[in-house]
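Let us work through a complete example step by step.
Step 1: write down the sequence.
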Amino acid sequence: MGSINKVNRRTFLGVSTTAGLMLAGQSAGGAAAASEREEWPRLRPAIIYKLFIGRSGARVNAAGRSVQYLTWGEEEVTKMNNYLGDLEKKLGDVRFVGGETIPTADVAEVAAKAASADAMLLIWLSGHGGDYATLEKLSFGLDKPAVSFFQPFSGHGWMWHQQWKNRKVVLLSTTDWKELDEAVSLLRVPALMKQTKILAVNGPRGTKAACSPEEVKKKLGADLVTIKNEQILELAKSIDPKDAEAEAERYWIKPAIGILEPTRQEIIDSATYYLAVKKLMIEEKAQGICSAACMGNPRGCLTFSKLNDLGLVGACEGDIDSTLTMLLFAHAFRTPGFITDPVIDEAKNALVQFHCTSFTRRPDGSRMPFLIRNQTDSGGGVALQVQWQVGEPITMAKLVNLDTMLAVPGKITETSTSPLACRTQFTQSVRDARHLFLNWGGGAIVQPGSPGDLSLYAGAMPMLHRAVFYGNHLRGLKRLGDLVGFKVIEEDIPT
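Step 2: predict the structure and record it as tokens.
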């Protein structure tokens, strides 16, 4: 077994606190992961056209009297430009252009310049810059994803912003500039999705719309391409065994708390499969992959865990709906997702999450403690038992039919090691477990055997799986829905 250490499953929960402190300090590992991520082709930044709306100075009213406009002034414009400049550096994948003020800039000229941008950011400046006529002139900017940042005391125009609710625009009315951080993060998503490519090994499984490359392209802009698993297996033959052994040792064996069932060679075989998938994804310029062949030999569990650690997306069982969900979260919130098979416990008013493909790297770059195990259902292969952090907020979500996001926020209340469930297990609080049990799917998922269903399994996949993410992203999801064009159903509360 070489450097492999055995750990009894009963001791895992006891050692995980100390291990968590140890792994949290592995900043070098985080840097290595970031470096490996750079091997994938970089997506171009989202181009966001910023536009200030407001008037300053004096005017003569109908009675012939001079009226002074209330205004931020150039000093505040400079402050906002500096704030956006810092945000641009922080995010790294957005670029602000434009910056005119209406008035006095000509609307038609600005519209022509903004035509090639991916999105619009409208920033309201003065006490008299937001009348209905101004809003009508700005409608050109809402033909693409947009954020309207309206601050109190920026005029009376807020009364008419409701006319924009059915456009792809996030409407903000707030004094908190930090709201722009999330809004701009969301604003880049459509542009990044248009550059995203997904490989579906042996074809996608899920809702009918999500399984259609044409519908995915039309709705989200991403490319969905079917490949055969044999293509990956053939590539695996070209992987140097020494490279696979080094990958297994560095990323899995050495950092693991311990290893129970798998042999060292089985872990190396899984690392070989990962390196083959990595090579193919880089060649194809793909950011996501889902596989209907992941239960083969070798299994894809470690491969998907590693891809999600890198900020990419690896999804099991061909689940295209979860794949798209995780891609949206990766672009919007820069957080990896974990596909689970949840079950409801009304006694605890909770939801138990479990599966075998958990990521190990938290959004801050630290790694969670993990054991290397076999895959529960088959008793073979290599999978992970990852210790999620009790007390942390999380969001369970899934985009179905390309038009509905199912979402349940909560906190991790406990972890477990039941032999009846997949390896990684934890319990999530919910608001109303009974309602969740009876409302599972929110009425948005086609049931097995219903008209429009592709097959029995295609009908079961959307109902079964969900994806779980660190952080409460419910507000962000609703705003992202405004930009991308999906509604949000909170499955655990009555509507």
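Step 3: interpret the result. The longest helix spans residues 264-284.
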